[in-house]
Specification:
This protein is an alpha+beta fold and 375 residues long. The chain contains twelve helices and ten strands. Strands 2-1-10-9-8-7-6 form a seven-stranded antiparallel beta sheet, with helices on both faces. α1 runs antiparallel to α12, α2 crosses α7 and α10 packs across α11. It starts with a helix and ends with a helix.
């Protein structure tokens, strides 16, 4: 426990989020760690306290939400390294009928002209996951192709499907084989509430229920979902849930330690000192400003560079945030990797203060960096 980092989290819990875990690595070593709050604090949307309120710890598992996009990006770039997919080839090569102007690069930079979201669960309430995916793949382009930037979960859903078709396996299996198994991330996967790895939903990248569910942070009160209470162990995102819990834009769960290891792998590759998941040249392209106009930050392939919502004083750092209240920030120039996992949507969305909390954690990372000479 870091006293200063712990104080930062304690100042936000439970007002901003019921539970929070943060890790800061300096030059690859954990320099600060803190965990506070309760994994399940509320029993309903009115704020009734739950009968059982397990404490958060460093081994707690959180819904990563849109940080899942970085894992989808890593899978696609690894396939590109092998020549299985071309970043500038029409996606229609894998998905016939899709607008030929859509390419993996445009999907990963949110410049393919696709809408931000599509509530396929509401459009097709009686359909199964495969039928809904087919409908998602037929989403028409409705905005200018090539820019300006328009954040699109739909685009990353399609990117995940391209990865499946090019990689010859379900997305969960690809993430497992190309990222989590390579890095040894035992607590990163989809659908922790799935009873077993032999579940009928496709893909093996689910977490063992007995080992995982008791450590998972609850998210929003959703009375339309099966089971009592707030969502726990199932993806919060409605579209990912409607697609079976595994999608290119959302669905992954992880511990702070696992996410830190993933961020460190990208950091090392960015400075030419590692290639565990991606080659340094692939990460260099990932972190190159792709010229997406109209965003409040520079955009690489799947990653945001200098996003003011998450980097705070770490100008030039890259990463991504998640709607549930999560963020990963990696600063290769300073040798920093910063992870913040929260469940700020528990029991309802719309809490204030998550941006300020992200900035405060990033500020603590900068302070720790300034205490140590660069190596």
């Amino acid at each position: 426990m870091s006293d200063r980092l712990g104080a930062v989290l304690a100042g936000a819990v439970p007002r901003v989020c019921p539970a929070a875990v943060a890790l800061i690595a300096v030059d690859g070593s954990v320099a600060a760690a803190a965990a506070t709050g309760e994994l399940v604090r509320y029993a309903d949307a009115e704020g009734t306290l739950a009968a059982q309120r397990p404490p958060a710890g460093r081994d707690s598992i959180f819904d990563l939400a849109s940080i899942s996009k970085l894992f989808t990006t890593a899978v696609l770039l690894s396939l590109a390294e092998e020549g299985a997919v071309g970043l500038d080839e029409p996606v229609a090569a894998w998905i016939p009928g899709l607008d030929p102007r859509a390419t993996p690069r445009r999907l990963l930079t949110h410049t393919a002209g696709l809408p931000p979201t599509r509530r396929i669960d509401l459009e097709l309430p009686g359909a199964d996951a495969s039928e809904r995916m087919e409908a998602m793949l037929r989403t028409p382009i409705a905005h200018p192709v090539g820019g300006p930037y328009l954040y699109s979960d739909v685009g990353l859903v399609i990117a995940g499907r391209v990865a499946e078709l090019a990689g010859g396996a379900p997305l969960g299996a690809l993430v497992r084989a190309r990222v989590t198994d390579v890095l040894g991330l035992p607590d990163t996967g989809y659908r922790p509430a799935t009873p077993s790895r032999s579940a009928t939903l496709p893909g093996p990248a689910t977490l063992p229920r007995a080992a995982a569910l008791s450590r998972v942070a609850a998210t929003e009160w959703k009375p339309e979902r099966p089971g009592p209470g707030c969502v726990r162990g199932e993806v919060h995102d409605e579209t990912a849930y409607a697609l079976g819990g595994v999608a290119g834009h959302a669905g992954l769960f992880a511990t702070a330690g696992d996410l830190l290891a993933f961020g460190e792998a990208l950091r090392l590759a960015a400075i030419g000192q590692g290639d565990a998941v991606l080659r340094p040249e692939s990460v260099a392209e990932m972190l190159r400003d792709q010229g997406a106009e109209g965003a409040a930050f520079r955009h690489g392939l799947g990653v945001r560079i200098g996003d003011p919502a998450i980097v705070g004083p770490l100008s030039g750092a890259f990463g991504h945030s998640g709607f549930t209240g999560t963020s990963l920030v990696v600063d290769p120039a300073r040798g920093l990797t910063v992870v913040l996992l929260t469940n700020a949507v528990h029991p309802v969305r719309g809490r204030d203060g998550i941006r300020e909390l992200r900035h405060a954690v990033a500020g603590e990372a900068l302070r720790l960096r300034e205490l140590q000479p660069l190596t």
